[in-house]
Design brief:
Layout lengths: L1 E6 L3 H12 L4 E7 L2 H11 L3 E5 L7 H11 L4 E6 L4 H9 L4 E4 L4 H12 L4 E2 L1 H13 L1 H11 L5 H11 L4 H8 L3 H15 L4 H10 L5
Parallel strand pairs: 1-2, 1-3, 3-4, 4-5, 5-6
Length: 216
């Protein structure tokens, strides 16, 4: 069962999202919050697998709340849920350790897919957000590629192979199956890769993999 914390200051939005999630037998909404500070407190209390956090909330905005949740609970994946698609929000959310970014205007199936992916240790960006990220990366591709290629020189050949699969969006379970190893081995590889690349999460690692040419 995937345990989810839902944080949004609009009660109707919370009710709608909760209804979509609760319709899935494998997902349970264990707590709800109406502001960022409450979201952090509920996360501390319930220790969810995934926290769905709206960006704009009172007392503490969602981006700051997400950073606190990630600091308190490294095992909890954070997905930013918002009506806004501005690049600045995307960049700050990913830099703050978010593992996913979904637009409220997206397909409900994206919501379920995102929660499942992040709970499984992968990352998930809605298609519209992914297009924006790729567009940003393509803007200064040559210089970013050179930096990324230099950064991955600290990795072994096997670690580069795992990084490429992370960049392709595969979960730990998928990577384990692809490489014929146990999932625990993949988790160890991913932890080492994040540490050596000095990044906070799989999304940031995936961006480096893309920039370095490990994935297209």
């Amino acid at each position: 069962m995937i345990r989810v914390l839902l944080a949004d200051d609009e009660a109707m939005i919370r009710a709608g999202v909760a209804a979509i999630l609760s319709a899935d037998d494998d997902i349970e909404v264990v707590a709800e919050a109406g502001d960022g500070r409450e979201a952090v407190e509920q996360a501390r209390r319930t220790r969810p697998d995934v926290a769905l956090v709206d960006i704009r909330m009172p007392r503490l905005d969602g981006l700051a709340a997400a950073e606190e949740i990630r600091g308190l609970l490294p095992g909890t994946g954070v997905i930013m849920l918002t009506t806004f698609g501005e690049d600045a929000y995307i960049e700050r959310a990913l830099a703050g350790g978010a593992s996913g970014f979904l637009l409220k205007s997206g397909d409900p199936r994206e919501l379920l897919a995102g929660v499942r992916a992040v709970a499984d240790g992968a990352a998930f960006l809605s298609p519209k957000v992914a297009q924006r990220v790729i567009a940003q990366l393509s803007g200064d591709r040559m210089s970013r590629a050179a930096v990324a290629r230099d950064r991955i020189t600290v990795l072994t050949a096997r670690e580069c192979e795992v990084l490429a699969l992370v960049g392709a969006g595969l979960s730990n379970a998928d990577i384990a199956e692809r490489l014929f190893v146990v999932e625990g081995t993949v988790k160890a590889y991913v932890s080492t890769i994040l540490a050596r690349l000095d990044v906070r999460n799989r999304v940031q690692a995936a961006i480096i993999a893309y920039e370095a040419g490990l994935v297209t």
